[in-house]
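Example record used in the benchmark description.
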Amino acid sequence: MTVFYLGRAEGEALRVGYTVGRVLGGAVDRNRMKRRLRESVRLTRPVAGVAADVVINPKKSLRTAEFSDLLTEVSRAFEVITQKLAERP
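Model output (structure tokens):
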């Protein structure tokens, strides 16, 4: 998956969005991907201190990926985002 982010003003909360296009499958497959992504974000979301807009763009392999792998990828993405925003002047 590809994760895009943009830092926001301090004190604002983290916002997460998902883009799942028709190329990735029918409506049932796309909705399942979004449900899995929402749950993985809910379980791995940083507690506080991250003010950013995040957009997650999954690949086709998400349909068959294990949920534990998805959790690992999402948590790694949030770790990188948190680290990059902390380095910002």
